[in-house]
Amino acid sequence: MTTTMMAALRFGVVGALNSLVGLAVIWALLRLGVGDYPANACSYAVGVCLSFVLNRAWTFAVRGPVGSGEVARFLLVFALSYAANLGVLTLMRALGFAHSLIGQGAAMAAYSVCFFLLSRHFVFAAGRLAR
């Protein structure tokens, strides 16, 4: 298996784990009486941090101190990937897939592919090359 394929597989595992942790955070906060929006926001905050740490260390095997530029690039890539998600979702709705798992699935796929490629080639590339 190529290094890109292994990284993509690890990226998927991190995403699945991130989703489970996010749901657990939402569940716990809702049980504590926190509202939907704050619970969702906390879940995303935990998820972004977990994703950064696991993808940096495990998916892309970056070592050494974390630089502020690396964190800023990661947050930018997160925002761009989410924008790609919304763009594809909007397109799918225009194509007749409103309120559809097909449209949501296409949007999720766009987010994941965008996030993986930008993480590999923009966020964590310098750290991988420095080894």
From TrEMBL:
Cited InterPro entries: GtrA_CellWall_Glycosyl, GtrA_DPMS_TM
Q: Where in the cell is it found?
A: Membrane
The GtrA/DPMS transmembrane domain covers 10-124
Q: Name one Pfam family in it.
A: GtrA_DPMS_TM
Q: What broad class describes the main subcellular location of this protein?
A: membrane
- Keyword match Transcription regulation: no
Record's keyword annotation contains Translocase: no
Residue spans crossing the bilayer: 7-30, 42-62, 74-95, 101-123
Protein name (database record): GtrA/DPMS transmembrane domain-containing protein
Natural source organism? Novosphingobium guangzhouense
